[in-house]
Specification:
Chains A, B: GO terms for molecular function: alcohol dehydrogenase (NADP+) activity; butanol dehydrogenase (NAD+) activity; metal ion binding; methylglyoxal reductase (NADPH) (acetol producing) activity. Chains A, B: Belongs to the iron-containing alcohol dehydrogenase family. Chains A, B: This is Iron-containing alcohol dehydrogenase. Chains A, B: Keywords: Oxidoreductase. Two copies of one chain form a homodimer. Chain A is α/β, with parallel strands linked by helices. Chain A has two domains: 174 residues, Rossmann fold (3-Layer(aba) Sandwich), CATH 3.40.50.1970; 204 residues, Dehydroquinate synthase-like, alpha domain, CATH 1.20.1090.10. Helix content of chain A is 47%, strand content 12%. Chain A has a six-stranded parallel sheet, with helices on both faces. A two-stranded antiparallel ribbon of chain A has the order 6-7. The longest helix of chain A is centred in the middle third of the chain and has 23 residues. At the A-B interface, strand 1, helix 7 and helix 8 of A face strand 1, helix 7 and helix 8 of B.
């Protein structure tokens, strides 16, 4: 293990903490841009409560609404323009992963010179990371991405339908206000996709990280076991606030770096899925639910012992043969995803097998290494990616 | 769960990272005060390598040596005086928990007005937390306290022989350089005490935290299981660098707040132990090894289910009766401590039963609440503390 880790975000967690938004925002500015999505925060009252809290603290607010799922570069540019024009000095993301990711990049767009897409790796074009951003406060309304307490964002360029990732120090939120009450109105399907998303953040590093990280392994297993215990309760009864809180805390730690510290892991399943949700209107978590089990069966062939550890520690599988244990574990994992209502086949998402080559090519365009392979364990060629996707048809 | 968490410390982990000290220190200052303990870093070459790294980066250094185990207020005052007199602008702690704790308070002492002991709670005197400190860089040479990545310090006032704790935002190190190679020369007994120390940080919150923290429970169990797997290897062969690295990472996460986030836990076993090591020349980890099993047997009577969970998840105990499982788990835990060479009786530390009342009174003086009880689950009276200590005679 050899690594660096730093995460300066201040985490404020608990039911009712939305009421502290104004007090917290006041530490960073006087005029906030509130970034929102499709309007659910208007319907459930969260937006009004946020504005009231800001108002009480003497922070004025303008809104940048309508950030779409799989947020687009043009939306980010629009938000940056609003923040600049309105002289906002703090950006508040009130929404799910798409809203938080978009808001982070908007906060950096205010200072970024040139084409915003240059922040993101894409094909041969050089990448120039953002180095400065307005202070960001995240207020997640969904337990899923972990974006509230990390420095990453995923944006889609609608011209090329390429989805890409940026991670930069200036994108760490100053504060994350994580109020599980905001998630009680999330419908069962979106709740389930969020659970799949958070678990996949964990499995990526568990299966693709470096060897010799036993603490991180145990942390990873702990998050998965907790998500599998409380996630179904949140799906079954959205008003179960304890289940919502435990699921949401699991989603925070699943991608704030605590579990992955030192694993130095690529995220191949995410890279493949991004290609799907860039081209098709599917939820990221649903796409992951399709790709991950298929990828696991592919990868288990090269590292059965690792997948057997997963099977034994998560599902208590007792088979002594590693490969048999591994495959039973993956079956059980896929069955869990189905049990909470996640799709595990492309066809369930309305995606056929016509464009498998294109998905693989796009994946490698964004995330391929110099040898044209997708980093992970094992490294994947275009043919490997197609094989995984074909297994998920 | 309702809590706040923030930890800005930059963690640099891995064998050989001591070589980066100069580069890192240069970000914070030009003249460093290096705080050291009894001289082991001189004998094993770490001090010279640290100075060479600083020198190469253009950072000059003065030394504050001789910080004793269970560091004293007078040493802290001396260090603050050196830093002030020499116009140091960064403080580097090169040593174990005592050195790191002392260095943190020295860095704050430079700016603190009035009696340094006022930083610490002690009896009726009001506490005034430090609000400013020189930049601190920790370079631990022992896997134990977790002080390298948190904002706490424990200091003994030699006039009263009271040991007390301070935690303040300004005491977070700017960076922690955690190089497991620095721990290979730690002798087996000190290695074992460090393992007990780190595990006790975990058990405190596991048994005294609020209900309903399942992710934190799993994290806690993961750290204990890892420490129990790799710790004995580090005791048996100090040159096993992988065992040293895993043990040290376990010690970092055992007290950087990741496991305890949201548990809002008091640390009663530590509070009782501090009284012992303030009055007797024993290692903190050895004292914990004596107090913890005795405390566990006392506390299990009020919460058998919790201790049964520990027994089942850590030791795989299958007894269905909670109390029986709990007691077997505690027996197994005590046996583990003995297996790595830790004492579990006061008499093994040369401490008799003459002063049990005094230890209990001192504990309540530092850590008692308004009702004269020691916070924890259960709350403890003076008689309870004496009962625990008597069971450990």
């Amino acid at each position: 293990m050899k690594f660096e880790y730093q995460n300066p975000t201040r985490m404020i967690f608990g039911a009712g903490t939305l009421l502290r938004l104004g007090e917290v925002a006041r530490e960073y500015g006087n005029k906030a841009m509130i970034v929102t999505g499709g309007g659910s925060v208007k319907r459930n009252g969260a937006f009004d409560r946020a504005v009231a809290s800001l108002d009480e603290a003497g922070v004025s607010a303008v809104e940048c609404s309508g950030v779409e799922p799989n947020p687009r570069l043009s939306s980010v540019a629009r938000g940056g323009e609003i923040a600049r024009r309105e002289s906002c000095d703090v950006v508040i993301a009130l929404g799910g992963g798409s809203v938080m990711d978009a808001a982070k990049v908007m906060a950096a767009a205010v200072f970024y010179e040139g084409d915003l897409w240059n922040m993101f790796p894409h094909g041969q074009a050089a990448r120039r990371l953002p180095t400065r951003a307005l202070p960001i406060i995240t207020v997640p309304t969904l337990a899923a991405t972990g974006s509230e307490m990390n420095s990453g964002a995923v944006i889609t360029d609608e011209k090329t339908m390429i989805k890409s990732f940026v991670g930069a120090k200036c994108l760490y939120p100053k504060a994350a206000i994580v109020d599980p009450e905001l998630t009680v109105s999330v419908p069962p399907d979106q709740t389930a996709y969020g659970i799949c998303d958070l678990i996949t953040h964990i499995t990526e590093a568990y299966f693709n990280g470096v060897d010799g990280t036993p603490v991180q392994d145990r942390f990873a297993e702990g998050v998965i076991l907790t998500a599998m215990e409380y996630g179904p309760k949140a799906v079954a009864d959205g008003n179960d606030l304890d289940a919502r809180a435990q699921t949401q805390w699991a989603s925070v730690v699943a991608l704030n770096g605590w579990v992955q510290a030192g694993t130095l892991s690529p995220f191949p399943v995410h890279m493949i899925e991004h290609t799907l949700s860039a081209q098709h209107d599917i939820a990221h978590g649903a796409g992951l639910s399709v790709v991950n089990p298929a990828w696991m069966r592919f990868a288990a062939k090269t590292r059965p012992a690792r997948f057997a550890q997963f099977a034994r520690r998560i599902f208590g599988i007792t088979k002594s043969d590693d490969m048999e244990a591994a495959l039973e574990g993956i079956d059980r994992f896929e069955a869990f995803l189905r049990s909470i209502g996640c799709p595990t086949r492309l066809s369930e998402c309305g995606i056929g097998d016509e464009l498998l080559d294109r998905y693989a090519e796009d994946t490698l365009l964004v995330a391929g290494n110099a040898e044209g392979q997708l980093p992970g364990r094992p490294m994947m060629t275009k043919a490997d990616i197609v094989e995984v996707l074909r297994a998920a048809v």
